[in-house]
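Form P-L/3: holo structure prediction, ligand magnesium ion.
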Amino acid sequence: MVVTIVGSQLGDEGKGGIVDRWSESADIVVRYQGGDNAGHTVVDGEDTYKLSLVPSGTVRGRVGVLGNGCVVNPETLLSELDALRERGLDPDLKVARRAHVIFPYHCALDGIEERAKEDKELDAGTTGRGIGPTYEDKAGRRGIRIGDLLDPEVLRGRLEYVVPQKRALAESVFGVETGESFDIDRLYEDYKQYGERLREEDMTVNAGAYLEREREAGGEILFEGAQGTVLDIDHGNYPFVTSSNPTAGGASVGSGLGPGVVGQGETIGVVKAYLSRVGTGPLPTELGGVEGQTPGYEASEGNADRDDTDDGEDAEREEALATEIREAGGEYGTVTGRPRRVGWLDLPMLRHAARASSFSGLAINHVDTLAALDSVRVCERYDLAGESLATIPARTERWSRCEPVYREFDGWPDADWERVVEEGYGALPENARAYLEYVSDEVKVPIAAVGVGPGREQTIVLDDPFEHSD
Ligand code: GDP
Ligand code: IMO
Ligand code: MG
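OUTPUT (holo model):
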């Protein structure tokens, strides 16, 4: 069986926890896109792991693979591995020789371009990990791959071609002085050493061929998506996106197993029971705002430039609600520590995500976080200047003008979630079930799991995808 886990919203839906939960039945866990912009949390009893590159299944001792679709910062990778080893884990990690390498000049250029875009409000609020510039070089056929680190002569030749271009870009186009990050000799020495360590630890593989061999030998494969559908470079709200394809098609392209293999398996969309976003770009159901991220928002003015709030009191109530949800859900970036923007669940977004990835099931997290609110809202559809939209429009500018049309649900009380997990779905508060079933009906995808806490044991499983036959 092959199971793909995809973020259905804007990242941080709790993919790490769901991957950890279902790693129980998997042999290999594969990241197929993104890099150390991801921050996936696994809570195993008292131990919390925040993983950027190492696949979440390695916490349970499963083999981890970084597929060809990933961009890999070897420094982060090796230090994350070392840190996990210090904590007593022994991750068995393999990296695709076709995966692209993030160099320090990519990280520098990420910051330089973000700053240059600020005036035009085109900056995405990136994680600064060099993700975009690395994928740019991949598409521009001047990237350097993990396999190239294994051959110093090839590495040197590639650096000699690309680094002067990057230096000229930084200095001549952006007018920024460059330093060590653009020094060929320095980069060559450091990255040659990373290559040596990858070789010594026998970590590189021809990922597609490796996965196919393992699959034929009966291995169960779990794909771990990073980011989420609305951050997808094709299906997200461009340009406020990441530079890869978190949607399920990415699992095929980014691993070397064909779409037939991925498509014959199960695809689970991970949903947060509300919304969070870290970074810029529109968010029609946003509550309140976060300075520096919410477009046009300034804390002192409250929610001033949104015309859907009647008066200052409403804006204040929204701010208070946002703070309550942010605190209850621990909505602070795993990678950057930035406060996350929060909003109500958005069904047009989920319909778009379900279509783009052919979800066979939903894993809906954070049902506990919304507990104790008097009422909970869901955006059923958008109103755009009198037009009713059931899904996200293709143009971001139009999306930013969409007004949510809400349905309101009675809230549900806080509960003894441990008991709820023990007793199963039926033990969830009735109003929570009404909410979940409404969402599932509207998105036309059955519920596979419900998260009621961050811990491994705090997920109610209704339908384990690994129990479906091939
Ligand atoms: P990911 O990037 O999708 O893996 O998600 P993150 O790890 O960045 O953020 C999700 C956060 O919510 C983490 O702190 C998780 O431990 C936590 N979490 C996941 N599921 C639940 C849930 O059902 N309830 C609560 N309260 N927390 C959850
Ligand atoms: P996980 O896997 C939430 C956001 C950034 C920014 C945009 C582009 O933990 O869900 P990038 O550095 O990728 O070029 O930034 O995407 N972003 C994420 N938001 N969760 C993530 O990963 C994210 N990875 C990137 O905030 O808006
Ligand atoms: Mg995250």
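COMMENT: The domain at 275-467 is CATH 3.90.170.10 (Adenylosuccinate Synthetase; Chain A, domain 3).
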